[in-house]
Design goal:
Elements: E1 5-7, E2 15-18, E3 23-25, E4 28-31, E5 36-39, E6 42-44, E7 47-48, E8 54-60, E9 63-68, H1 69-77, E10 86-89, E11 102-105, H2 107-116, H3 127-137, H4 143-150, H5 154-163, H6 171-177, H7 192-195
Antiparallel strand pairs: 1-2, 2-3, 3-6, 4-5, 7-8, 8-9, 10-11
Amino acid sequence: MKEEWRDVVGYEGLYEVSNLGRLKRKKRTVINRCATYVINDRILKPYLDHYGYVVTSLKNEDGYKYKKMHRLIAEAFIPNNLNKPFINHKNGVKNDNRLDNIEWVTLQENMKHAAEIGLIETKNVNLITIERIDDYLIRKMSMLEICKKYNISRDALRKYFKKNNVVFRTLSEIHTLHPQNERDSKGRFLKKEDSDEEV
């Protein structure tokens, strides 16, 4: 397969990823108060995180950010018209980020595939857990509402979410979802149920 390079989304002109799973810093001229100098092209060497995924740190005007390689490649090469939030490794190998080995999936599709290829036991694919995550990500319910619906504690719900890499909503997102909730002079929600939301 011929190697093709594309700009990393959000880092155009700074970094590129390839369909073979590689990362490159692009050649550019840097001008600052002290000097002008040229940064040459260079293939970068990402590393494995403790979950076995290939990760790297990218820098722009906002500073350094930690990124997973499979997401950078999927964003650069694969359209995601259905806004699926997860990326699946088709062969089950987390550090194989070739373009033909990754695809956008839902949580349900990701867990189903993991069970089919033996990465997890079928008996551990908990449909109730998936429903709780859908309530949070798709139906935009608050954590307190989900806890009441399933009669579970907030600690248990946080564990479900962290285990499945669910990103918690920020305070601004919570306020947008629940505009009826007023804040005090310090920006805190006045209603108790929203102060219980995980951020």
